[in-house]
Amino acid sequence: MEAWSRFVDTFFNWTIIERYFPAIMKGVVVTIEIAGAVVVTGTLLGLVLAIVRTFRMLPVNALIVIFVDAFRALPPLVLVLLVYFGLPNIGINLPSFAVLWLVLSLVLTAFAEEIFWAGILSIPKGQWEAARSTGLGFLATLAYVVLPQAIRLTVPPLTNRTIAITKNTALGTVIGVGEILNQATTAQSFSGNATPLMMGAIAYVILFIPVVVLGRLLETRFAWRRV
Amino acid sequence: MEAIIQQFFNLAIMERALPLILSGLRETILICILVIPLGLAGGLACAIMSLSHLRVARWAAVAGIDFFRAIPPLVLLIFIYAGLPFAGLRPSPMTAVAVAFFLNTSSYYGEIYRAGIESVGQGQWDAARSTGLKGYQTLAYVVLPQAVRNVLPDLVSNTVEVVKLTSIASVVALPELLYSADMARSVTFNSSPIVLAAAIYLVMLWPVVRLISRLERRIAA
Amino acid sequence: MTTGAPPILEIRGLRKKFYDVEVLRGIDLFVLPQELVFVIGPSGSGKSTLLRCCNRLEEPSAGSVRVGGIDITGRSTDINAMRRQIGMVFQSFNLYPHMTALRNVTLALAKVLRRPRAEAERLGLAALDRVGLAGKARSYPGELSGGQQQRVAIARALALEPKVMLFDEPTSALDPELVGSVLNVMRELKRGGMTMLVVSHELRFARDAADRVIFMDHGVIVEEGPPQQIFSTPSQVRTRAFIAELGR
Q1: How far is CA B218 from each of CA A169, B211, B221, rounded to the nearest angstrom?
Q2: What integer is the mean pLDDT of C147-168?
Q3: A73–B205 CB contact, under 8 Å
Q4: Residue C5 and residue C19: Cα distance in Å, rounded?
Q5: Long-range contact set of residues C114-123: C-beta below 8 Å, sequence gap at least 24
Q6: pLDDT (tens digit, 0 to 9) for every residue of chain A, 227 residues total?
Q7: Which of B58, B73, B83 is nearest to B103 (CA)?
Q8: Of A111, A106, A107, A79, which is closest to residue A175 (Cα–Cα)?
Q9: Interacting residues of C134 by C-beta distance below 8 A, sequence separation 6+
Q10: pLDDT tens digits for range B49-95
């Protein structure tokens, strides 16, 4: 009994929960805001790049591939530190939440572009041919025939990847963004108690488990064709 | 332009930082060697448990996988490293990293294995069982080999993610690649060491990333 | 068949090379208005490539193709505008799976000819009616049989009122019992005066409905003439061998 009450006191201390609940909630709001912004800019830009790639302009495509490969190979934290510490030294001063948003958006853009591109490529050539044979131009074919089918295919991998990247908002704590983890660790040092950390962990779980479950459902509904 | 080169591509500073960065790289590789096999094994165990006859085991496996996929790895790491001491446990940075990564990567690998096993048609099970093979034998000799082949790109892709994930160990002061680079940065007030570290990550992972793209496209087609 | 009127389709000196392989080695072919020209030949003879060059799905390496007097292979030709006048029906139908049959048919009417929605639907339903599928307007391709899908594909090409229709092995992907429904539609089109260029193995259909049969082999036209001549008394050895090979 002694051990149990000590456990509760360390991780579920009610006074501390009450005192720091508002701070954690503030972190939740910041997390949601940044995650939301990242999802919007990342997927849109990724789609735009994939569409640009369909025009088959070799130099442009080369640049896109280099960008996409680099941002898929580099750890996000490396990029965050690079941008956060490097830019001010060349005169560009961005607030930390902007740095976080910028880096995570570019990372999501890179992954989203690859996913959309794979989707577009998987549409049979016959669909292009049929549409072009009726006189539909290139863009019209893309817009009405190819993309609607391609996007349907991209939902499961895109959802998975988006979840992974938005969880990286936790990295913001390293550069002082006031998201959940930051609020939790600050509260933990002030209070000398681990409860805020537990609150932070639970906040993340409550935020993301529904998304993970949704992702799993979408995955089974739109499964990639496998051998 | 000049300022950009000075700040990010300062070769003199990169050269000075190189020994520190290389020792960081060594540490990163050690972490990977420890964590990746653990994750692969843990994930396999999770996936097998999710197939169990016992509803409790199945439920626990799926809940565990979803739970550890929902928590950001950094949060898990900090919880273990900074939170457990309050309960009397004082893990070293390496131990904290190992445990956090084990929990996180097992759930991701577990999900991939699970999808792979599911993608092997029921007919395979039926055929194997009807020749007298037991459940675990069917799994080992018939289903798993096919499952792994089906999800190989995802397994490789996730392994790349794990290598990238080692960079968060820098937050708990484990002297891996990013930590060493950041240390060099704070001493020189110059970001070139981090660029060097980035270059090393690129050299390690770019070829694999290219390979994954190609594999993904072939499966989607 | 109107004689004396200029050909709808004029192919002169058509050549096509894929890498080092010359698939079409100098084709000259005219199709007169309301003619049904049937192209037969062994696989690899270039029949499909010939058809696909006619609407520039393949770019000719040399030679010219004129439709309704206009050179479609010219550099300045608006190929999208030209393609409205050339209907194409594919072996694998290529219907848009995410759209209803009606939408499949009206997409080009709406986006290319910019017809208002009500008019496009009216024209689309009329086209579907001509192929006997007005009742399936709201069905998706996945809900239709192969024969029905191909007929919708024909309606899709028909709705744009093309000058000539190209058929690339329209029944080769169909189960035997469904072939008849598609051939009947093609017969109807012929009766209605459509100019048609058909690549196919359906020899009985050719005997009944074709005005002219062309035998191709290794990228050249070996022999052409009325069906009776080609099937019963071919003058070339290769033609005779091919016909015999196909049997009945």
Answers
A1: 32, 11, 5
A2: 94
A3: yes
A4: 38
A5: C123/C159
A6: 677 888 888 888 888 888 899 999 999 999 999 999 999 999 999 999 999 999 999 999 999 999 999 999 999 999 999 999 988 888 888 999 999 999 999 999 999 999 999 899 989 999 999 999 999 999 999 999 999 999 888 887 888 888 888 899 999 999 999 999 999 999 988 888 889 999 999 999 898 888 888 877 877 776 544 32
A7: B73
A8: A79
A9: C125, C128
A10: 988 888 898 899 988 888 898 899 999 999 999 888 888 889 999 99
Distance CA A184, CA A203 (A): 10
Chains contacting chain C through 3 or more C-beta pairs under 8 A: A
Cα angle B56, B59, B119 (rounded to 5 degrees) comes to 125
Q: How far apart are CA A2 and CA B115, in angstroms?
A: 44
Task: Kindly report the number of other CB atoms within 10 A of residue A64's CB atom.
Answer: 18
Contact B68, B107 (CB under 8 A): yes
Three-class SS state of C135: helix
Measured distance CA(B186)–CA(B168) in Å, rounded? 17
Q: What is the interface size between A and C, counted as CB pairs within 8 Å?
A: 65
pLDDT of residue C248: 52
Q: Are A97 and A30 in contact (CB under 8 A)?
A: yes
Do the bridges between strand C62-67 and strand C70-71 make them parallel or antiparallel, or are there none, so unpaired?
A: antiparallel
Rounded CA gap, A216 and B161, in Å?
19
Contact yes or no for A51/A179 (Cβ under 8 A): no
Which tokens in the block code for residue C67?
């439709």
ipTM above 0.85, yes or no: yes
A149 at interface of C, judged by CB pairs closer than 8 A: yes
| B83·A89 Cβ contact <8 A | no
> In terms of CA atoms, which chain B residue is nearest residue A204?
B71
Contact call for A127 and C84, based on CB within 8 A:
no
Nearest residue on chain C to A124, judged by CA atoms? Answer: C94
Predicted local distance difference test score (pLDDT) of residue A226: 34
Q: Of the candidates A130, A137, A140, which has its C-beta nearest C94's C-beta?
A: A130
- CA separation for the pair A188, C243 (Å, rounded): 89
Which residues of chain A have a CB within 8 Å of the CB of C82? 135
CB contact at 8 A, B81 and B75: no
Under 8 Å CB-to-CB from A30, ≥6 apart: which residues?
Answer: A97, A177, A178, A179, A180
Q: Decide if C70 contacts C232 (C-beta within 8 A).
A: no
Q: How far apart are CA C141 and CA C149, in angstroms?
A: 6
Q: What is the token pair recorded at C53?
A: 């060059």
Q: What is the pLDDT of residue B220?
A: 54
Chain A contact for B87, CB < 8 A? yes
CB-based contact A11 B219, cutoff 8 Å: no
pLDDT per position as a tens digit, B190-209:
899 999 999 999 999 999 99
pLDDT band at C2, cuts 50/70/90? Answer: low
Q: State whether C83 and A127 contact (CB < 8 Å).
A: no
A168 at the B interface (CB within 8 A)? Answer: yes
Please work out, in degrees rounded to the nearest 5, the angle formed at the alpha carbon of residue C219 by the alpha carbons of C213 and C220: 55
- Minimal CA separation from A150 to chain C, in Å: 11
> How far is the alpha carbon of A115 from chain B, nearest alpha carbon, in Å?
9
Residue pairs spanning A and B at CB distance below 8 A: 160
Q: Which amino acid is present at A197?
A: L
Rounded to whole angstroms, how far apart are CA atoms C200 and C216? 12
Question: What is the three-class DSSP state of A9?
Answer: helix
Give yes or no for C57 touching A (CB within 8 A): yes
Task: Give yes or no for C15 touching A (CB within 8 A).
Answer: no
Distance between first and last Cα of chain C: 28
Say what the pLDDT of residue A227 is: 27
Residue pair C135/C165 in contact (Cβ under 8 Å)? The answer is: no
